[in-house]
Amino acid sequence: KNILIVSSNYYEEISKNLGTGATSILKEKGCNYDIIHAPGCFEIPFLIKKHISNYDGFIALGCIIKGETYHFEVISNETSRKIMDLTVDNLVPVGLGILTCYNFDQAIARSDINKKNKGREAALACLELLN
Fold first, then answer.
1. Predicted TM-score (pTM) of this structure
2. Residues near 55 by Cβ (< 8 Å), separated by ≥ 6?
3. Residue 111 near residue 117 (C-beta atoms within 8 A)
4. Could you say which residues of the chain have pLDDT below 70?
5. 6, 8, 49, 123: which has the fewest Cβ within 10 Å?
6. Dist. CA 121–CA 52, nearest whole Å
């Protein structure tokens, strides 16, 4: 299987942890993969669509942390909606490993490579849909 990981590096430490979790599963399962970086989570659907015909599946990684304005909801909702649209419209699996957290500590906990790493879970979901 050929998988593209699209990772927002806005929160570099979080993205690195999520990427480590995802790539460990892909290596374990013998998958080929590439990684490209988006400036933020909002740009991830564009990059998936741009490469939609070149890969069997995708893994979207990133983190959105709530600030003081409604921006958090807009970015979270629209990014998730467009990723779901891409999945359904193109019949291609996208493992969703974009964290939506209220603070940085929550993001660290959900990306910890020694605990419940959501990048790992997104990779497993993508592969399960491919099989």
1. 0.96
2. 2, 3, 4, 34, 92
3. yes
4. none
5. 49
6. 21
